[in-house]
Structure formats: structure tokens, C-alpha cells
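Repro:
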Amino acid sequence: MDFKLYGLCIERLKHQIKLADKRRESAPMMYNGRMVLEGYETSDIDEIVDLLELYDLKERRLESLMEKLEEIAENASLLVRRKIGFGFDEAGHLCLYLFYY
């Protein structure tokens, strides 16, 4: 199996997941099934490419970016053994989320 995680750090993700779980314990109903692990404060595709080191992204379109981010999130989810994924917050900024089911 070939994993490429680009700008994600698994150890940092594991630490962020522990912190998220502690926050959720204190207010379980506040998070509506997901919690932000990382917020990137941008929706600009070029900035996201730079932040996450996605330099092999062939097309700089939202659809291509989201496909790449989904692939990265699936790989990272396997390694941290929790469901994570990328999405946009209410302000339109990219975030990495931890999902609770």
C-alpha cells in the first residue's frame, strides 16, 4: 500500500485528536458530529497547495483539490485509526475535521 501524506504530520494529528476528545468530553453536544483539528484560514487553492505541499496536483481546480484531499484524509485515517476529512467551515476556509459517529 502506498501512502503519501504531503504536509500532514501523523504525530501532530494524534496529539490533536487527543485534545479534541478531551474537549468533546467536556461538551459532547456542542460539536455536531465533527471537530476541527486544523484550520487553514484560506480557501485559495494556491495557498492550500503550498500549505499542504500538494505540488503534484495536476489541475488547480476545486474538484481536483477535493479529490486529492479526500485521498490524503483516507490514508491518514488509516494511520491514526480515526475518521478524518477535509471540508470548508462557515467562513469558507479549509479545515481538517475529526468525525464522531
